[in-house]
C-alpha cells in the first residue's frame, strides 16, 4: 500500500491472529487486522490435493483423527474440519481495497513446471491475486529460488511490477547440525541466491537482518521485509525510517501505535 515514502509499513502476521493459533488465517483475524488499519495482511497459502488454494499455516490437518498432508486432502475434507477455513479467493476478496496482501507461498510446483513460469502453481496464486487486487498492493514471499524467478519472469512478460521477495532464514528443523550451521552462514550472504531468483525484495528473519541481511539489502538497493518482530524494543528499531520497507508482526496494534 502506498504511504509516506519514509514510513515503514506494518503487516499483520498469519492474517492478524497474533499468538492465537486458533485464529490463524481466519476471517475474524483478518477483519481485526483491517480494523486496526494495517498496511498489509500476511496470508499463509497452501495448495490442496485437488488444486484448491487455501489459507493455513501448517502442511497437514486431522482427518478422521489422523494427520493427513494437505497434498492428499480435498477442499471438501478441508472445509469440513472447521467453518473458519478460508480459500485464497475468500481472503483476497475480503482484503481487496482495504489493505495490501502479503502472500507467503508455502507450497512447491513439480520440478519440471519451473521451465515454464505460467505452468507453476505459485504463478497461478499470484495471477489470481493480481486479478482481484492489482499488482501494486501485493508482495509475494517464499524461500524457493525457482518460484521467485518464475513469478518475476511471468510478471515481467506481462508488464507487471509484482514485488517478489526471496525469504532468508526459514526453518532448518530436522536437519543435521552441520547442515543447519552451513545454511545459516549462507543466509548472511544471500547475494547469489537473490541474483538467481531475480528477487526485487528480500524477506529476512529479524535476527538475520540484524546480523547482515539488512546491510546487504541496503547495498543492493532492495526493499527489506523483516519478520516476525513483536517486542517493543525491536519494533522501535525496525520501524525507524530507512531500516526496513515492511515489518511483519504478531502485534500490529502495538506496531502501529509505536510508529504513530
What does this structure look like?
With 260 residues, this protein is of the alpha/beta class. The protein has a single domain (9-259), classed as TIM Barrel (Alpha-Beta Barrel), CATH 3.20.20.190. It has helices spanning 27-36, 75-81, 88-95, 121-133, 145-157, 177-187, 191-197, 206-220, 232-238, 252-259; strands at 9-12, 40-47, 53-55, 60-63, 66-69, 100-105, 138-142, 163-168, 201-205, 224-227, 246-249. The chain has an 8-stranded parallel β-barrel, surrounded by 7 helices. Strands 4-5 form a two-stranded antiparallel ribbon. Helix 3 runs parallel beside helix 4 and helix 5 (145-157) packs across helix 7. The two termini are 17 Å apart.
Reading the helices and strands in chain order gives EHEEEEHHEHEHEHHEHEHEH
- Secondary-structure-derived class: alpha/beta
Fraction of residues in H or I helices: 25-40%
CATH architecture name: Alpha-Beta Barrel
The tally of strands reads 11
**Which CATH class applies here?**
Alpha Beta
Radius of gyration: 18 Å
Quick recap:
With 260 residues, this protein is α/β, with parallel strands linked by helices. The protein has helices at 27-36, 75-81, 88-95, 121-133, 145-157, 177-187, 191-197, 206-220, 232-238, 252-259, and strands at residues 9-12, 40-47, 53-55, 60-63, 66-69, 100-105, 138-142, 163-168, 201-205, 224-227, 246-249. 38% of the residues lie in helices and 20% in strands.
